[in-house]
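Weekly puzzle thread! Below is a chain. First person to post its structure in token form gets bragging rights.
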Amino acid sequence: MTTDSSTGLTDRLDPVGEWSARRTYRGTDFRAEQLVAAKSGRRVSVVLPARNEEATVGRIVRSLHEDLVERTPLIDELVVVDSHSTDATAAVATRAGARVVAQGEVLPALGDEPGKGEALWKSLAATDGDVIAFIDSDLREFDTHYAVGLLGPLLTDPGVVFCKGAYDRPLDDGRTVLPAGGGRITELVARPLLAAHWPALAGVIQPLAGEYAGTREALEAIPFAGAYGVDIGILIDLYEAHGLDALAQVDLGVRTHRNSPDSALSVMALHQHLAVHSRLLRHRRVAGAAPLGDSLTLHRRDPQTREFVSETVAVTPVERPPMREARAAT
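Winning reply:
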């Protein structure tokens, strides 16, 4: 809040700009040694959801284990949740120093749904940290400052319950690299949806970032959207539960990972719509809305016949209830 001394009138700052100025950190603002001292008895878990990531998961785990488990004891447990990989993901991660948990073996009585959302939800039952950081396992250029940066605001500011990663996302199309062209679903789907329904979240630079951290207390109190809707769902639900000032973001520099083809992005985009629609109903921002469709039809031209070929894909991600409720029911 600022005051105009000439008129005595009080002018409010733009709330989005005010939040961005107050709650945007840089990864380089924090050092691992500083955060170890700031833990004050709290345990820290780092979770990597993984499905067929043998090419990248080992290097990520090894870096985290060597730097932040052995050299500087910031991470108390380093866990890879293996989501039905058919390659050597589990073996590679184990050799690199992680404890590997098979997604289907966690809370087996509650079944096992496909997708990233299930892996993250079940990781809450497979870990015991007071603060939990999630890091995608397909990162090609990884530095342990990702984990340090994400944990920094949570361990040093008691008002923060959730911290989202922010970064540039290069897009490599095989011919050239666009420095910030990788966030296609973010810019064309997620950001417009948030602008329309949750404008207070307009300051979040990467609302679909897979790198984020939160307190166990906050994460166990919200539902987890299924599959690819989990990232935006967590952001929205924690905003609704705790308010904007309890959320933070940290600039981690550049994130390079495997880029998906447009057909896969279409499916991911529908997951965003489904997760947002569910939250519009849950938080009573709309009423009486008709159920959304549960399939997506994709079209491509057959290279041999030159005719268009259509394929309909079922998109029915299952949302999970708050882990606190799931545990109480078992």
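Puzzle host: Confirmed. Bonus trivia for everyone else. The chain is about 35% helix and 20% strand.
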